[in-house]
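Budget justification aside, the reviewers requested a transparent look at the raw inputs and outputs of the sequence design task funded under Objective 1. We therefore reproduce one unedited record. The lines immediately below are the structure tokens for a 556-residue chain.
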């Protein structure tokens, strides 16, 4: 071996080692590697976390069509590097022709499927208006440069993963039912196939050239309205043109030395997370042990009480008065926990006749971003169900949401996540449907500590709740906190859902003995958390959920 080769091997070794120990300067954690890489590349080129958000989001609309979207909606919670917080609501709204009883038959019964599949399920999309608004306020790179990577991805194609193939296959019948047998995503994809979506590339080009008008006006608006009409829906051009996102006051609360900022109504996420943490704070949960009998009991009882409040009091604050202060009041919450005892489960007062009927795996999507300056972004975005309403705008290359199902079609009748609602979440024109999305940012001792969130419908809030406790109380690394087995309770139905095969039989036996109804066979994944942690010394680490194809792209 000559000296040169020896020298090269030696320097390679040093570089590898350096790479391993080099600190992470920025990170994007999302549902797909393509999207995380695209976001990170924007940061590497000098963009900030908001720039990266726009590029990541649009990339997900291409390569993660079950949840990534241009025709859905979402929520952003951010913390700038100088400690300023804010949040943007770009949630869908009910169309102007929507009515309170639009999903009921003449006898007043909910018509199955009407709020979940087809044109009538579609809410007015908010995503592009939201991204455009964020760019106006925080963007540092030209809009067109942030849209371009998604256009390239749509033109060059993304590879079908194993999990994605299963997802396409499982929805194929619905795609065909709504869009005909030649519809784009009903193709028999194999793992590794390249999906090239030129119509979507063209729509993104319109958005690139015309900004929000490229989506809400002109040819794309015409296509969208036409497609909604063909499939039984009621969206008008006025609905599209008049859509606007809203900067909302943040929800912020303390848990021990943590300051937690999350999404306010129309999401229930922030309030419910605050309630649950406040209810368990007086207990020394770290002493009970992670996923121990006592920890599960305590957390389930807090969850039960919070979801009961959710069903009664929460909805769009532009339409109803949300008693936010009262709901987060420590005395109110401590009174709520007075009925809790360690011997027996508190029974949710009556078993709901319906059940959780929604057995899907991947629908909403969350991503977390930190840039080189320390700006933090937490975004959850969705079409609601997997591929939303299944209505595909053929010439536009995208699916439309079925967010209308997040309204309460009728008090006492559960939606597809088994969630109940009341008048507070009834349908009205222009109203936003109640959400569970919980994009969250946590500070510890005034410093950025965690950025996290997850999909999972009703299980979103409880997954975020558990992940924060896993890291903070049970001292897990970010990745361990994300990986750890999860459970869920939502008041009604009165059942504790456990991730299958992850909890031991002795624990399950003891929970049953105390009167908890346990459901372990449920096939739905409880959350897919994508998170970032910053330790006290400023070291960044990530957690991408192995339950999906989620991926952390990091800059060193
Ligand atoms: O806003 C909500 O709460 C629901 N539309 C979220 C849907 C969801 O998370 C589906 N994912 N698994």
């Amino acid at each position: 071996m000559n000296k040169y080769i020896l020298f090269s091997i030696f320097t390679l070794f040093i570089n590898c080692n350096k790479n391993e120990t080099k600190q992470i300067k920025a990170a994007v954690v999302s549902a797909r590697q393509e999207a995380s890489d695209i976001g990170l590349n924007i940061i590497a080129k000098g963009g900030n976390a908001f720039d990266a958000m726009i590029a990541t989001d649009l990339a997900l609309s291409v390569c993660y069509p079950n949840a990534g979207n241009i025709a859905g909606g979402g929520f952003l919670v951010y913390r700038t590097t100088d400690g300023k917080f804010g949040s943007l609501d770009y949630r869908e709204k009910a169309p102007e022709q929507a009515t309170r009883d639009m999903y009921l038959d003449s006898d007043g019964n909910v018509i199955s499927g009407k709020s979940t599949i087809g044109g009538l399920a579609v809410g007015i999309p908010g995503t592009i208006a939201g991204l455009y608004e964020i760019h106006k306020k925080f963007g540092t790179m030209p809009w067109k440069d942030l849209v371009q990577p998604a256009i390239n991805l749509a033109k060059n194609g993304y590879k079908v993963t194993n999990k994605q193939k299963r997802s396409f296959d499982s929805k194929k019948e619905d795609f065909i039912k709504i869009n005909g047998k030649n519809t784009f995503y009903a193709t028999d994809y194999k793992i590794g196939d390249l999906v090239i979506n030129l119509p979507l590339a063209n729509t993104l080009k319109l958005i690139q050239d015309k900004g929000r008008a490229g989506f809400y006006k002109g040819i794309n608006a015409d296509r969208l309205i036409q497609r909604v009409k063909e499939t039984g829906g009621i969206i008008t051009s006025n609905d599209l043109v008049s859509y606007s996102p809203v900067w909302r006051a943040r929800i912020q609360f303390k848990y021990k030395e943590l300051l937690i900022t999350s999404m306010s109504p129309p999401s229930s996420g922030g309030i419910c997370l605050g309630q649950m943490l406040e209810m368990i704070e007086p207990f020394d949960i770290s002493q009970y042990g992670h996923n121990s009998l006592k920890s599960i009991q305590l957390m389930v009882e807090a969850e039960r009480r919070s979801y009961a409040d959710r069903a009664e009091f929460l909805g769009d604050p532009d339409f109803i008065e949300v008693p936010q202060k009262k709901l987060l009041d420590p005395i109110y919450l401590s009174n709520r926990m007075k009925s809790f005892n360690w011997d027996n489960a508190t029974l949710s007062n009556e078993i709901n006749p319906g059940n959780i009927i929604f057995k899907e795996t991947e629908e909403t999507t969350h991503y977390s971003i930190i840039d080189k300056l320390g700006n933090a972004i937490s975004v959850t975005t969705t079409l609601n169900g997997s591929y939303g309403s299944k209505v595909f705008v053929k010439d536009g290359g995208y699916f439309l949401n079925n967010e209308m199902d997040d309204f309460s079609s009728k008090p006492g009748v559960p939606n597809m996540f088994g969630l109940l609602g009341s008048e507070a979440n009834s349908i009205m024109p222009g109203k936003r449907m109640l959400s569970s999305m919980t994009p969250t940012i946590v500070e510890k001792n005034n410093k950025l500590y965690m950025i996290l969130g997850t999909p999972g419908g009703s299980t979103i809030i409880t997954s975020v709740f558990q992940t924060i406790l896993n890291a903070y109380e049970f001292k897990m690394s970010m990745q361990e906190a994300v990986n750890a087995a999860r459970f869920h309770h939502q008041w009604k139905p009165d059942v504790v859902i456990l991730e299958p095969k992850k909890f031991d039989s002795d624990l399950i036996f003891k929970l049953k003995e105390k009167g908890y109804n346990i459901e372990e066979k449920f096939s739905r994944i409880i959350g897919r958390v994508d998170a970032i942690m910053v330790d006290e010394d400023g070291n960044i680490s990530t957690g991408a959920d192995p339950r999906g194809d989620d991926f952390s792209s990091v800059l060193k």
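The longest helix spans residues 293-313. Residues 363-364, 382, 384, 403, 406, 435-437, 455-457, 460 surround 6-diazenyl-5-OXO-L-norleucine (CB under 6 Å). Computational costs for records of this kind are itemized in the attached budget.
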